Amino acid sequence: MFARTTRRIALAGLLALGLAGPAMAQNFPTKPLTLIVPFAAGGPSDVIARLLADHMGRTLSQQVVVENVAGAGGTAGAKRLASADADGYTLLIHHLALAAAPSLYSNLGYDTLTAFAPVGLVNTGPMVVAGKLALPPVDGKAFFPYAKAQADKLTVAHAGVGSNSHLCAVLMSQALGAKFTQVAYRGTGPAMNDLVSGQVDVLCDQSTTAVPQIQGDKIRAYAVTSTGRLDVLPNTPTAKEAGTDLEMTIWHGLYAPKNTPAPVLDKLNGALKAALKDPMVLDRFKAVGTSAFPEAEWTRDAHTKRFGDEVAKWAASLKAAGVTPQNAN
């Protein structure tokens, strides 16, 4: 009798859980959401996050509050999401550095491949190799030979170990066979400020924040890391055109904690899709040299596959570059 009663209770519990998902999604959201940006305000991830937060908030009829949780190359923000309730109210926007983190840090405090539920891919674009205006080279073809010859004197800024700007600096060093003096910041915003003021020499930054500074004649663009030139920087060559084998495409994705109910994830994915279909959002993307993923890749499954592929890709690339994991704190 006791065993039968226990089984009935367990079955009732499972049925309740099965019904809870659709009911939760139907009512979701009933309060404001938090969108974690794992870097400082003013950086490229922050720019994209605030654009999405505004649009998704209107679609979901709830405010989406952006929270900057900077530190440890973006892993502090990721750790914050990994420990959040799996109810869809806490989200994370992150770029490919989330996939590179397991190869860069030995004590993340979470399993990168299982701690997050991908919601959808957001945007993709190249990095821009830029320098302070006082640097002698005036174009990309002159810059890369100069950088190789002056590697021990050049300071290359980045937004912290594991950031896109750091990964780009690693690849540039690898492509040129040169070792630069790297200067780490808590975000791309502070790094860009010091590049503009001439405190550092070079920054490999995402187009989303580099393009406005270049167009304002505050820094000089030397190359883009895509296979083709950017429409907004038509006179800036690709790194290949400038004579070096440097190619890097960055992307952002939206994440929830693992075990977030699928119906809630689907609703969030729907709000993201609505933003990516908006011509205003697409025009804003284009203006800063980035673009939405093709519509066929807006699914949660497509995001999950790309994320797994990138984890494997960066594990191989960083190992080849001789990068060893370090403490994240």
Task: Provide a descriptive summary of the structure in words.
- By secondary structure, the chain is α/β, with parallel strands linked by helices.
- It has eleven helices and ten strands.
- It has helices spanning 2-27, 44-60, 75-82, 97-104, 140-149, 164-176, 188-196, 207-215, 262-277, 279-287, 300-320, and strands at residues 33-37, 64-68, 90-95, 116-131, 155-158, 181-184, 202-206, 220-224, 249-257, 291-292.
- Strands 1, 2, 3, 4, 5, 6, 7, 8, 9 and 10 form a ten-stranded mixed sheet that branches.
- α1 (2-27) packs parallel to α9 (262-277), α2 (44-60) packs across α9 (262-277) and α4 (97-104) packs across α11.
- The relative contact order is 0.19.
Beta-strand percentage range: 15-25%
Helical run tally: 11
Poorly predicted ranges: none
Q: How much helix is in the residues?
A: 40-55%
> In terms of structural class, how would the helical and strand content be classed?
alpha/beta
Could you report the average pLDDT, rounded to the nearest whole number? Answer: 91
**How many β-strand runs?**
10
Sequence-ordered SSE layout with sheet pairings:
Elements: H1 2-27, E1 33-37, H2 44-60, E2 64-68, H3 75-82, E3 90-95, H4 97-104, E4 116-131, H5 140-149, E5 155-158, H6 164-176, E6 181-184, H7 188-196, E7 202-206, H8 207-215, E8 220-224, E9 249-257, H9 262-277, H10 279-287, E10 291-292, H11 300-320
Parallel strand pairs: 1-2, 1-3, 5-6, 5-7
Antiparallel strand pairs: 3-9, 4-7, 4-8, 4-9, 4-10
Helix pairs in contact: 1-9, 2-9, 4-11
